[in-house]
Design goal:
The complex is a heterotrimer of chains A (291), B (226) and C (364). Chain A is an alpha/beta fold and 291 residues long. Chain A is built from 10 helices and 14 strands. In chain A, helix 6 links the parallel strand 7 and strand 8. In chain C, helix 1 crosses helix 2. Chain C has 13 helices and no strands. Chain C has one domain. Chain C is an all-alpha fold and 364 residues long. The chains are: A alpha/beta (291), B mainly alpha (226), C mainly alpha (364). Chains A and B meet through helix 2 and helix 3 of A and helix 1 and helix 4 of B.
Chain lengths: 291, 226, 364
């Protein structure tokens, strides 16, 4: 399998923030969720992939081509939608669709019309009259209908009302069913990532702190509640919180012998539960360690 | 170096004109009105018409730069454009060509019209040289404004560059008046290009071309396009 | 659907231009200002020529407006501009200089060689003796109509870009009695110039020509949207009133005194002229629809070559009339020979150079 993109040793320094030594790959046909708090560097990473930002150091390969040197060829096959990307307010959505259709030979008008209907958008309305949700949906429509090989979506569901969000997620999961398409989407909404992604990467303060297959990721973590006096200090324990005699611990790199080892420490194990991604993410960020 | 993406460059120019269409239409109407005023062949109408034409020229070039470059950044549509299959050089060339053409049409009408008026009326023909120097200044001022708009993000600096470069025409006219060999030509019946005239025209042209090339070079070395 | 009667009407308006320009040589009224003005003259020429003059170009501009609206609907504004660049801008840019030069050459030749020169030729001969003859400003000659058409397409685009659809569609909603009032609005344009109105040949556009011919052009675009609007009008009635008013106009013209330092038509002539223009233009339009809608081979051929003929005719006509100038024949014979020679040469060149070549895409 070839890589949809491969970032190697990427550095990008801003006065207030730096992206440091990011190495990240996405295999063809895979869907990666990029999770991080606001300001973690998600948008910068996506901009580097689309050529909107040039990295200070490191190499960027997208669809087998080198960025930014081959950006024209790369951008023909990449669809990029970002939260802070705006359309022309004075023009209609139809005008934007025609512009994109005239530039991308792969534009699928039938699909575009279907998306118009599903997103409940009026193509003859000017963008100035669109709500935030409609603007996001319009941008996604323009991306999806050109049928790109790689989709880079920056916070596609942020700020959407529940209805718009479910519309977008529904279409997104349809798009993702197409195995030839690779997707990287960033979000701080871990539910969306959990629902859609094959693999998950955590970005925190400009560093990549985890990048793994989703199932393995979720398999790796457990929340264990026990009671007793001991508080073990093992490296795999990302967080331990005591409330009286009750001890709640969150474990990365969970193994089946963990409950026995806890019992050996004099603790009584009450429950061992898999963790939601959000919980894993928050724990990781708080622990400030590698997930 | 990749080859230029000409079809997309053309699309982008057409797109910028379309976004600029209403202002362009207003400028065309004002330009037509100004030419009709000149056509009345009355001194007051001639004065008013030529003034209006200069206003149209300056306004068209400033609005064009503003709509295609300054607004694109302010309205955050730059990322949308740069996500299209173009390189920074393609983008620069589309902006350059679109703005140059928008500027060139009223500029040429005004320049050719002025020279024709000088040649076909009792005005001394030497004024042709003088007016060419003034048009040279307007061209250089336009290139300054365009370059600043490409290179500097601040709207304030852009407005400052547009206004100050055009206003500099006043000291320029006064300066020309100080050069006796040029003002003598302007009063005379012959069109003479002497050394000071050629030097100033060459400086204006070189400055214009050099600025645009430098801006293009700097633009291609930018590290952020959003 | 192609409307044959408009093609035919346009062709007739063009060919009428040849007759009109040919007739001017024998018009007493324009004798002092027309280069090939002949010794042999007739008041009859004035009566017919100036009648034609009042509605020939208005009709032409109205048809042009109609076709512009049709082109916009079929191919969009860009399609219109592309088509007009090919059919109007390129012929204008290519032919203007040779036509003006050949007119200038033949006029100078005539000034030097003709024994019975017109006042203009005498004036040219006098000036050519001066050391530094004054230069005339560049002119669009009889191609002014192409120059104005280009302006009208640009202005049409500008208006449609600026004004909301409801505004530029306003003329379509006007009631039919509007044509009784509309000419009053045109009369200031005609009152600002001499009567009969001159050809706006200067490169600097003229307000009056924009207002006068531009209104017919705009009316043509509006008629396209409401095709049935003028069809119910009676051509006989329109023409009858038009002819009656023209009788009055002509009588007034003969007694009008025009100040040469500020040549303007009196309001009476301007108002009458505007009414005649509108009534006769509409009469021609409706009559064409009734009686010219057939597509005969002869008419199709004539229509095909009419544009080229009109572009080419003036230099040929001037040359023919300069050559005939010294002959003491009756004006009608000279008129017939000049027209025949001009049309023959124009259509011959059309047949040989245009009709079967790529050039027909431009001027066919």
């Amino acid at each position: 399998m070839t890589a949809a993109f491969a970032l190697t040793g990427i550095h990008k320094r801003y006065p207030q923030f730096a992206l440091e030594d990011v190495t990240l790959n996405l295999l063809d046909g895979q869907i990666m969720g990029l999770v991080g708090v606001n300001g973690a560097g998600k948008t910068t990473l996506l901009r580097i992939l689309t050529g909107l930002v040039r990295a200070d150091r490191g190499t960027v390969q997208v669809l087998g081509l080198s960025m930014p040197d081959d950006q024209v060829a790369v951008k023909r096959d990449v669809g990029f939608a970002s939260e802070d990307m705006r359309l022309y307010k004075s023009q209609t959505l139809r005008w934007h669709m025609d512009l994109i259709a005239s530039i991308y030979p792969g534009w699928d008008e039938v699909y575009a019309r279907d998306l118009l209907r599903r997103f409940d958008l009026k193509s003859e309305q000017t963008i100035a009259g669109f709500s935030h949700g409609q603007r996001v949906k319009a941008l996604l429509l323009l991306c999806f209908a050109r049928r790109p090989r790689l989709l880079l979506l920056d916070e596609p569901t942020t700020g959407l009302d529940p209805v718009a969000r479910s519309e977008v997620l529904e279409v997104l999961s349809d798009v993702l069913r197409d195995d030839s398409r690779s997707v990287l989407f960033s979000s701080h909404n871990t539910h969306d990532v959990e629902q859609l992604a094959d693999s998950i990467s955590f970005l925190h303060r400009g560093r990549l702190i985890a990048s793994q297959d989703k199932e393995r990721f979720l398999d790796d973590w457990r929340r264990i509640v026990c009671h007793g006096a001991a508080t073990p200090q093992w490296p795999e324990i990302a967080m331990a919180r005591r409330n009286g005699s009750v001890l709640e611990i969150k474990v990365r790199g969970y193994s089946a012998d963990m409950p026995e080892r806890l019992i050996a420490q004099g603790l009584v194990v009450d429950s061992v539960d898999p963790m939601r991604l959000e919980d894993i993410f928050v724990t990781t960020v708080r622990a400030g360690a590698v997930a | 170096m990749n080859s230029l993406n000409i079809p997309v460059i053309k699309r982008l120019i057409a797109k910028d004109w379309l976004l600029f269409q209403k202002q362009l239409a207003a400028h065309v109407l004002a330009g037509a009105f100004a030419l009709c005023l000149l056509g009345l062949a009355k001194p007051w109408a001639f004065y008013l018409g030529s003034l209006l034409l200069i206003i149209v020229l300056v306004a068209a070039s400033c609005f064009s730069i503003s709509t295609s470059l300054v607004n694109e950044r302010r309205d955050q549509t730059l990322a949308f454009v740069m996500s299209l299959p173009i390189s920074p050089l393609d983008f620069y060339l589309s902006k350059l060509a679109g703005n140059l053409i928008t500027f060139a049409v009223p500029f040429l009408v005004l320049a050719v019209g002025t020279i024709a008026v000088i040649l076909f009326t009792p005005l001394p023909d030497g004024l042709v040289v003088y007016s060419m120097l003034l048009f040279g200044h307007i061209l250089a001022a336009f290139c300054v404004s365009l370059s600043v708009a490409m290179a500097v993000e601040s709207e304030g600096w852009n407005i400052f560059a547009m206004i100050s470069s055009m206003v500099m025409i006043n000291p320029f006219i006064m300066g020309l008046g100080q050069i006796e060999s040029i003002s003598a030509i302007a009063r005379g019946p012959d069109i003479i290009f002497n050394a000071p005239v050629i030097a100033i025209l060459a400086a204006q042209l070189v400055l214009s071309v050099a600025l645009l090339c430098l801006t293009g070079w700097a633009h291609c070395r930018k590290t952020a396009f959003y | 659907m192609r409307l044959h009667y408009l093609d035919n009407l346009r062709a007739l308006a063009m060919l009428a231009g040849v007759l009109f320009h040919a007739a001017l040589a024998y018009s007493p009224l324009i004798h002092p200002y027309w280069p090939p003005a002949d010794r042999s003259q007739s008041q009859l020429v004035d009566i017919f020529a100036w009648f034609l003059h009042l509605f020939r170009m208005p009709l032409f501009f109205m048809i042009a407006g109609y076709f512009a609206a049709e082109l916009i609907e079929r191919r969009g504004m860009l399609g219109l501009m592309r088509n007009r660049a090919r059919r109007i801008l390129i012929p204008f840019a290519v032919l203007l200089v040779p036509i003006v030069m050949s007119l200038s050459w033949s006029t100078q030749w005539a000034a030097a060689n003709v024994q019975h020169p017109s006042p203009v030729l005498q004036w040219v001969a006098q000036f050519s003796l001066q050391a530094n003859p004054p230069q005339l400003p560049p002119s669009t000659s009889h191609l002014w109509f192409l120059y104005y058409l280009l302006w009208f397409y640009v202005l049409l685009w500008a208006m449609r870009s600026l004004l909301p659809e409801t505004v530029w569609r306003l003329p379509e909603r006007l009631p039919r009695w509007w044509i009784c009032v509309a000419p009053m609005l045109l009369s200031p344009a005609l009152a600002s110039v001499v009567a009969p109105h001159p050809a706006p040949e200067s490169f600097l556009p003229q307000f009056w020509a924009f207002a006068f011919f531009g209104s017919f052009f705009a009316f043509g675009t509006a008629v396209y949207r409401r095709r049935g609007w003028i069809d119910a009008l009676s051509p006989i009635w329109l023409a009858s009133i038009g002819v009656l008013l023209y009788g009055l106009w002509f009588a007034l013209l003969r007694h009008a005194t025009i100040d040469p330092s500020n040549p303007r038509a009196p309001w009476s002539l301007a108002i009458l002229g505007a009414y005649i223009s509108v009534l006769m233009t509409l009469a021609c339009w409706v009559a064409g629809r009734r009686w010219l809608n057939a597509q005969s081979r002869v008419m199709r051929y004539l229509a095909g070559g009419s544009y080229w003929t009109y572009l080419l005719h003036l230099p040929l006509l001037f040359l023919a009339q300069y050559l005939l100038m010294d002959l003491s024949w009756h004006w009608s014979l000279k008129f017939a020979i000049a027209v025949f020679a001009t049309l023959l040469l124009s259509y011959l060149s059309y047949e040989l150079l245009i009709r079967r070549t790529e050039l027909r895409r431009f001027v066919g």
